């Protein structure tokens, strides 16, 4: 089973006014991120607006990213559904397209009991031969992954990772301890990546890494080298991006940051708002402080 670690940007989903995936824009972004040294790519995460895309758009995004990556870095594709059958269908489709891993998300209108949550993710992992990363975001999901559920799922041979988007860093340490090393943890933008690396995390899957990939990779390298003083100095500089990410609409902030850098990724899909003028000024100032300009510059 492939070992996953490092910086995995959550890719935005560039969609044109006619609903068509902007293939060339997405492929160019993939090339830019790989050149920046990222360790993998995650299309159809939260920053990828998965909840606002139809099945055809989701499929095309995975196809473009897999083709553009061309095996140079692993592609962990997001799948999300309210029914187990649809989640299994999406996972098998992503595997057939060529995704190297599955980021499994449970959407729920009504709360799902713990046994149902475990059954959902188990069915996804049973359906594919790729590593499965569990995704939990208690702020937006009706049904969370509890510690007992994570412990049970960690015993599945293909479930070895969790991307936790809670704001509770102590929970990450509890997951590591409870699963006795079977469940490796990726941080989210809600966490301080350097702190998560210090307690044993393997990297982060997050939207800001799509806008600041080189700096994110540098932070990861400092952490891996045990240079905690250097890591925290850089982390403090980068945290402003995370603060903006939390303050403004999710996809709008990262799409706005990429537009500033010369990537015509467009605005979030309605009814989500675009980045406000004030937000754009704040993002421009933050990128300027980090000396990030248009890619062509």
Number of domains: 1
CATH architecture: Alpha-Beta Barrel
Largest sheet: 7 strands, parallel
Please report the total strand number as a whole number. Answer: 7
Approximate strand percentage: 5-15%
What do we call the CATH topology? TIM Barrel
Helix content: 40-55%
Rounded mean pLDDT score: 94
- State the CATH superfamily name: Aldolase class I
Reading the helices and strands in chain order gives EHHEHEHEHEHEHEHHHHH
Number of helices: 12
Q: Compute the separation of the termini in Å.
A: 40 Å
Overall morphology: globular
Secondary-structure content class:
alpha/beta
Please give the order of strands in the largest beta sheet.
1-7-6-5-4-3-2
Assembly status: single chain
What is the CA-atom radius of gyration, in angstroms? 18 Å
Poorly predicted spans: none
CATH class: Alpha Beta
Structure report:
This protein has one domain (6-225): Aldolase class I (TIM Barrel), CATH 3.20.20.70. The chain has twelve helices and seven strands. It has helices spanning 23-35, 55-69, 84-97, 114-127, 147-153, 169-178, 193-198, 208-211, 213-224, 228-247, 250-260, 277-289; strands spanning 6-9, 76-81, 101-106, 132-136, 159-164, 184-187, 203-206. The protein has a seven-stranded parallel sheet. Helix 3 packs parallel to helix 4, helix 4 packs parallel to helix 5 (147-153) and helix 9 runs antiparallel to helix 10. The termini are far apart. 47% of the residues are buried.
